[in-house]
Design goal:
119 residues, alpha+beta
Length: 119
């Protein structure tokens, strides 16, 4: 069962309703936020969205790689990339961490019993 992802229009509508502003104003805020994120990562190397995560510029070193078609070794040059690191609060809200009882349990039977007990 595939679900629809949220489109930019749906996001703008949701922001407009939550902030009790027009769609045009909500779109302007969203565009300003994305522009601010880009400029901050360029300038400082990081942009934080509290509770969601952070955009981080990472410098990758030059390294040796392998051409998968020929198997030939090639030199991959150094480059800068942007990564998004999800905040712990967001990660835990989306994918709850396993309970400590199931980690400590050495067997599957004990883990199943702990899961049943939690329900």
């Amino acid at each position: 069962m595939a679900t629809q992802r949220m489109t930019q229009t749906a996001l703008v509508r949701s922001l407009a309703e939550a902030g009790e502003v027009s769609n045009k104003q909500a779109r302007a805020v969203l565009e300003h936020l994305s522009g601010l994120a880009v400029s901050e990562v360029k300038k400082n190397g990081v942009f934080v969205l509290p509770g969601i995560g952070r955009l981080v510029r990472v410098d990758r070193k030059a390294r040796m790689g392998r051409n998968p078609a020929t198997g030939e070794s090639i030199k991959i040059p150094a480059k800068k990339v942007v990564k998004f690191r999800v905040a712990k609060a967001a990660k835990d809200a989306i994918v709850p961490p396993k309970a400590a009882t199931t980690k400590a349990a050495g067997t599957k039977a004990t883990a199943k019993a702990a899961a049943k007990k939690a329900k």
